[in-house]
Amino acid sequence: MTGFLIAGTSSGVGKTTVTLALIAAFRKRGLIVQPFKGGPDFLDTGHQTLASGRPSRNLDTWMLDHESNRAVFASASQGADAVIVEGMMGLFDGKDGASDAGSSAEIARLLQLPVVLVLDAGKSARSIAAVVLGFELFDPQLNIAGVILNRVASDRHFHMLKAAIHSRCATPLLGWLPREPAIAIAERHLGLQTAEEQSAAHNAQRLDTLAQLAETHLDLDALLTLQCGMQFEAFASTPAPAAQVRIGVARDEAFSFYYEDNFDLLRQAGAEIVPFSPLHDRALPPNLDALYLGGGYPELHADSLSDNHLMLMAIRAFAATGKPIYAECGGMIYLGESLRLKDGRSISFAGLLPLTFAMTQRLVRFGYVTVELLHDCLLGPAGTTFRGHSFHHSDVTSDVDRSTLSKAYRISYSLASKQELEGFGTADRNVLASYIHIHFRTNGNIAANFVEAAITARTNTMVTA
Predict the structure, then answer these.
(1) CobQ/CobB/MinD/ParA nucleotide binding domain: from which residue to which, for each copy (predicted)?
(2) Cα distances (angstroms) measured from residue 309 to each of 248, 347, 350, 355
(3) With CB atoms 3.0 to 4.6 Å apart as the test, which of 134, 369, 408, 437 could cross-link to 423 if both were Cys?
(4) Read out DSSP for 188-257?
(5) Which active-site residues does the annotation give?
(6) Which of 14-28, 49-63, 91-105, 158-172 has the lowest mean pLDDT?
(7) What 3-state class would DSSP assign to 72?
(8) Which residue has the higher pLDDT, 198 or 45?
(9) How many other CB atoms sit within 10 Å of the CB of residue 96?
């Protein structure tokens, strides 16, 4: 199967642009493309999903063991003609400076993928050859199969760069992309703007432009000869059983930060995933047994979320039944009392948690985490451990009494030698909320525990009705 990993010399060189251009161009040629993103990223995966028409998946060698990464890769690639993995940061950047653990290079080795290296050539001339040569020599065992230059000023500029690279480097040059404002994706405090924020017409036009640029400037035929060496036959997929519970999932412009594998695992545990919009819907879907509210950008839609009084009432009424509600980051903020925006206004939300939140000027507690459950909760019994990550531009403020809240999590941060207690739960423990984005595959029992909590709550509701 055609397959390769798009890597960069660092963050910000244009990996996402090149990845989306290749997905769009291959689809124009009639190919089915399965995208992946290395690391804990929800924004790039959203754009990849839009471009490919297939859910993008995350690969992560810090959160998941090697076998789980291979299984995710093999399962999602079924039915595809080509697989494209977009790496994270620079090719060799990972957990520490002494190894490639947690890096794009480790993912490429694990999945036997050739690497296509993207460089920002916007301010480069002959020195770009030294950069390419350095990557060639840094790890000669890694298969760097080609180079793509991004933000090239002109055809003349490209030929100068090409001459420099050919004079000193062995890696083939697979083309270039010009500076083109029409294909840029705007950024904000957590990264790229989400795919959901632009109109369908705008997204279609941008993807069409990307595909045309790829056909014009990239050697697509050469890229299509690059092959993934992993044996997919060793990984058999298991069909999901009949659904036993219905889990409502908040999905719209305000809430879109989810690991797609979490949904797969919930389905495997017996759940039907039922999307709803806290922004646009006036009521919850019927016959739900649990709610799952992921992260996103509720701060950008705070007024509309707060003004949707019928949905807020429906969320409160659902909680009052004792059925489980699990929320992460932006979903937790939505369940809180209020959010103070950067303009100083305080916006009221559901009020299920006696917490207020405020937007901050910088990222708060960023990085990978390991979580241990201190007591039984919706995700499992005390002592259960799993992994996730934290990245947010908000924090809990202390002007509301939190004495009625339990804290189910002991969180250990990978980038700092510190721990903290978090994982806020209500007194009756049917609501669990945290800033941590959990990858359910880091502990195979999490999804099953949440489904079981939904089944138990439904049974209790029927008994007391």
Answers:
(1) 5-187
(2) 18, 13, 9, 19
(3) 408
(4) ETTEEPPGGGS-HHHHHHHHHHHHHHHHHHB-HHHHHT-B--S-GGG----------EEEEEE-SSSEEE
(5) 329
(6) 91-105
(7) helix
(8) 45
(9) 11
